[in-house]
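Q: Hi! First time asking for a complex rather than a single chain. Here are the components, and I think there are three in total. Is that enough to go on?
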Amino acid sequence: MAKAIALGIALFAFWLTLSGHYTLFLLSMGVASCGLCVYITTRMGLIDAETVPTQLRFALLTYWFWLIIEIIKSNKDMARIILSRKIELAHQFVLIPTSQQTDMGRVIFANSITLTPGTVTIETAEHALLVHAVTPAFVPSLEEMGRRVTAVEGAQA
Amino acid sequence: MTLDLVIQIASWACFSIGGTFLVIGALGLIRLPDFWARIHAAGMIDTLGSALVLAGMMLQAGLTLTTLKLVLIGLFLFVAGPTASHAIANAAWVAGLKPERLEKDEGALLGRKSS
Amino acid sequence: MSDPLAMFAVALVAVFVAMLLVIIRTFMGPSLYDRVLSVNSFGTLTVLLLGLLGFLTGRPDFLDIALLYALINFVGTIAVLKFVRHRLLGAANPSRDIADSRDEIVKGGQA
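A: Yes, that's all I need. Here is the structure of the assembled complex.
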């Protein structure tokens, strides 16, 4: 129930952002359409920890801040590789062990790995991710990233 | 007056650095020798380049509804961009596309016949 | 210096140059995945181009189109990849899905 209300509020905030016209008629139409969406989603049984991730901790914001700095660093390294006169690559497929308990945590970790240029998640499994790195220099920071994701993923739903 | 100047300078910096990263990423897409390296150059376009250009537009728009829409676009790009990259990389790996010279290959541990 | 149109024009030029280079890779790309990758990047650049055009012409309503284009670009990329892998766009044929040995990595990875 709490998740349904949270979904309704999020949908209405999205509607308000895209609309831009705030007359009584249009607002009531927006409320009605959001209510219909929540009703249909509930009937389809789609409201769970995956569609409405309210279990994520507030610390996710500080994690994003750390991730942005990490993205800037690896972008700089990647730009240096591209602009160097003779491109030197050492391709590798590396298995990165994951310590996350939930699917959501693993998704955040895999997406963060792909967000930092220089590393791409190729395949996922229960306790490890297969990662392609363009040189070995990009791999060491992934360990700390995994620890930080485990800290913010929240309780098992 | 001074705040306005600071915002102007900041958005100039965002646009020029972001544009530079866009062009470097596109250049990497041309220069890098094989697919597995090019996917990282495309990642540069998707992450820092587009984020900085969007940030420059946000600074120009100020605190309006336009900025909120730009934040939505940025959030979507940051969630969907890596997902698309992962889908492409996974499809290429399943299809058996390999770099010519692999320094280290732990993919064999997956126990899958990746041709 | 402080004319906002100038900085939009600078960003627009950068986006155009990047689009040109990316579309060259789309035509050159030796493998299919190179082409899908560069088309995806081209879509991201198109989103930026739409936003910048909206600012340049003083009509920020273009941002709605940019948001929509970002959504369509993502769905299109996934659709092309799914078609290449399964040869159909409806329900995936389970017998042709190659990624089915999900648990073996645990034994292999931890050993």
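A: The longest helix of chain B spans residues 2-31. Let me know if you'd like any chain examined more closely.
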